[in-house]
Amino acid sequence: MTEKQERLMRRNKEIRIRFEKKRKAQPKWTFEAVVQSIANEFFLSVRTIDAIISYEGIYRKTK
Asked: Do 52 and 58 touch, CB atoms closer than 8 A?
């Protein structure tokens, strides 16, 4: 695995961890509000964050 792939895997893992922490910290927020907040933190689109959290497409779990 290349260094770039490793960095992306670490980033995606951190996004998932922060998403779960924020959902617990802000239980009244909607899913969309939490995703928007994470997107702003990581300078990524809402759709990208949603795909990472949902393990869609290129963000699927790897061995």
From this structure: no
Burial 27-62, CB ≥16 within 10 A → b, else e: eeeeeeebbebbbeebeeeeebbbbbbeeeeebeee
Q: CA-CA distance, 37 to 7, in Å (whole number)? A: 21
- What is the sign, positive or negative, of the torsion defined by CA atoms of 40, 36, 48, 38? positive
DSSP code at position 4:
H
pTM for the whole structure: 0.90
- Tens digit of pLDDT for each residue in 5-57? 999 999 999 999 999 999 999 999 999 999 999 999 999 999 999 999 999 98
